[in-house]
Design a protein that fits this description.
mainly beta; three-stranded antiparallel β-sheet; 11 strands; 0% helix; 32% strand; A-L-arabinofuranosidase_B_cat; ConA-like_dom_sf
């Protein structure tokens, strides 16, 4: 991927968002700043097309934005918009793509399916609660004609 200045994207500094769980287990969140990103266009053994897949990440529920698109997951390998439903990635933030919203003010776990970000099956999804935990676990389960979103406190 390229950042806005057309420079190559750089990895996140994992040490920037670290906690200790249960007194001894270290956990690290993805603390993204401008020009941070990851991409692999030559993957093997992952879902393609409309095959089922699941993905998860642990991130900060305190650091997010309302921009399109903070994505984590499976995208097109040609770096182009290949049409509706041609990618499946987790979105985490408080954007209101085409009026979509979860409960409260966010941030919410969502699905970016290319040309649309969704917080559930309807424009308003009050069952999608804000995830404001220090560390949030967010999950997207994709199937051929549907998806499920899950999220919660990663330290619980």
């Amino acid at each position: 991927d390229k950042c806005p200045r057309q420079q190559p994207a750089t990895p996140v500094n994992a040490m920037k968002h670290k906690i200790v769980v249960d007194g001894s287990h270290h956990a690290y969140g993805a603390w993204f700043e401008e020009c941070n990103g990851y991409r692999n266009d030559k993957t093997k053994g992952i879902a393609v097309g409309n095959e089922e897949e699941s993905m998860y990440m642990v991130t900060s529920g305190k650091r997010f934005n309302d921009g399109c698109c903070f994505d984590y997951g499976n995208g097109e390998t040609n770096n182009l918009d290949d049409g509706d439903g041609t990618m499946e990635a987790i979105y985490f933030g408080d954007a209101h793509w085409q009026g979509n919203t979860g409960a409260g003010t966010g941030p919410w776990v969502g699905a970016d399916l290319e040309n649309g970000m969704y917080y559930g099956g309807n424009a308003s999804t009050p069952s999608n609660l804000p995830l404001t935990h220090e560390f949030a676990t967010v999950v997207l389960k994709g199937r051929s004609a549907s998806f499920a979103l899950l999220g919660g406190d990663a330290t619980a």
